[in-house]
Amino acid sequence: MAPERAVAIASTFDLRALPPDFLANPYPVYAVLRERDPVRAMPDGSWFLTRHADLVAVYRDAATFSSDKHVEFAPKYGPDSPLYEHHTTSLVFNDPPLHTRVRKLIMGALTRRAIADLEPGLVALVDGLLDRIAAQGGGDLIEDFAAAIPVEIIGNLLGVPHDERGPLRGWSLAILGALEPVLTPQRRQEGERAVLDMLDYLRVLVAHRRRHPLDPQRDVLTRLIQGEADGERLTETELLHNCIFLLNAGHETTTNLIGNALVCLHEWPQEKTRLLQRLHDARHQPEQQEAILSAAVDEFLRFESSNQLGNRRALRAAEVGGVRLPEGALVTLCIGATNRDPAVFEHPERLDLSRPNNRHLAFGFGVHQCAGLSLARLEGRIAIGRFLARFPRYTLSAPPVRGGRARFRGFLRAPFVTEA
Ligand code: HEM
């Protein structure tokens, strides 16, 4: 994007009216905003933050900057709508005490052991997908690979039977799509339908698991149903909506991590060659290989953050980055911009897969920091590492097609062949 164009978009920046060239590459616009107007007053009265230090300050002060969305979402969805009930019951859009209660249960269920248990199934799943791709000589990076992984992993985590997983991805896309800055009637309708269908589905699944509980040390849903030993339990509504959230949270975000990474490597051939060489040099040291892939996954998360925007509401007047925000101010936290802040990252516009001390905010920060980050990193490492080991010379065969969303950054399609 030409510098004048970035300045022009930044000077009238409005999340509700984003031009297509912004969605293709928002970073030049974010750079202008970060330099000239890092706490920007938006046309609708909200505030848009782009500096790393300011995001960290807001994340740290959860007593002032609330995640509770009752006030904001009542006019957006209508107080009786399924989307309103869903979002205002999920932990990510709540403050203590509900947030603390649900988070404790989820963290207790997403143990190292529960995550380690998923690894053999993950490896088998990825290898099966790679076999199919090898037989065809290529396919679509998103449909045939990136999107096929999280749905199975999160399905395994909650014990959703294999033959019932078909609708999960569509539901998830529809519910999260309704969080976009612009809610079209179609997006609203699809989101409402998806919440109702998912509730119907989960009621049956939960009732079955109540009758036939599994080992709570290994099965996340059983653990969430039974609650903590100290008597902390979720109500049925809390349980169902937080299961929906778990199924959705681990879905599109992880698909986009894997898809964005493989497209990025195609666009940065020297970085790809360097990564392949380092992995080859470490071929007899599995721990070293894991460390190389871990650093690469974190750099992909920084460089093309799959979740670009977060939101908070100021419960009282507060100052951020030298700007006074009034009580009730709605704040958008631009993760995509802060992850390229030169105050924190050297050469931020460069993909550097061995970047040291990568303090990106792709998983957020503070009390709401992503509860699934270990699982997401594991999925990223295994999927990207095994794909590269199998198809080191893969190349895109047509330009990839973007999802066209501001909040969740990723591709819908990316056709490729396994050999250039
Ligand atoms: C690359 C993949 C992922 C990314 C980029 C991502 C990103 C995020 C971000 C930015 C937040 C914080 C939201 C806020 O502060 O308002 C969050 C919260 C959360 N994520 Fe993830 N996530 C990913 C994968 C996952 C997976 C695989 C799971 C589930 C197993 C998961 C479960 C959660 C949960 C439960 C929360 C809410 C935490 C809370 O509010 O305390 N995420 N995620």
TrEMBL record:
Pfam families reported for this sequence: p450 (PF00067)
Cited SUPFAM superfamilies: Cytochrome P450
Keywords: Heme, Iron, Metal-binding, Monooxygenase, Oxidoreductase
EC number(s) reported in the record: 1.14.14.46
Principal EC category: oxidoreductase
Annotated GO MF terms: heme binding; iron ion binding; monooxygenase activity; oxidoreductase activity, acting on paired donors, with incorporation or reduction of molecular oxygen
PROSITE patterns hit by this protein: CYTOCHROME_P450 (PS00086)
Keyword Ribonucleoprotein in annotation: no
Family under the similarity heading: Belongs to the cytochrome P450 family.
Name under which the protein is recorded: Biotin biosynthesis cytochrome P450
Annotated organism of origin: Tepidimonas aquatica
Protein encoded by which gene: bioI
